[in-house]
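Standup notes
- DV: blocked on the single-chain target, sequence here:
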Amino acid sequence: MILPLAALLLHVGKGQDSKFKKIDRWYWNACFCGRYSQAANTRSESDVAKMFEWISSDKDQDILDFFNSYDINQIDFDNIKKYSYLHRTIICLLIKSGCKDFKTGQVPKTLLDSAEEDHIFPSLKYGDDNILNRTIITTNESKNDGVPMEYFGELQKKHERSVLLEILKSHLISNHGLNALMENQIEDFKEDRKINLIEYMKKLSS
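- DV (later): unblocked, structure below
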């Protein structure tokens, strides 16, 4: 996607926000449906031509058919393979949403600041490698393999619940998700996070 994205940005230059919003919609829709996972060159050439037309017009109506070729509600989060296009896309979504450090509440200055992808419910204890159980953190030294109730319980004492909720929000974890963490309920946690993730995906793609 780098080449078509570069072409679109060059075409827009210092254009209006509405033009960049159209590029955003193209980008995220393409990521969510794996538009360029096959026949990338052919599709890129065709899509860029249509995007040039759409960007140059005042129309808000979608001009690319693939925007409506999939249903976010039908994504099978339980079977997203590690490092697949959807796995990588969701990790990018988490980075975009902020992913504040659990302990400090700060956003990493760069992804090189010890940031890494890790499990929220420890994989050694729960055996769950689902993308809904993964996020970006800056260190897992204190988290290790303890149960979430212990780790997030200590964080709640440190931050107070309202502050901790703001930190978790940047990981697309809601109040209900925090309750699930405090009760070590992984299935409830994943179901709530899926709802939050779908809502965020819809926001970016529309």
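- Follow-up: DSSP finds nine helices and two strands in the chain.
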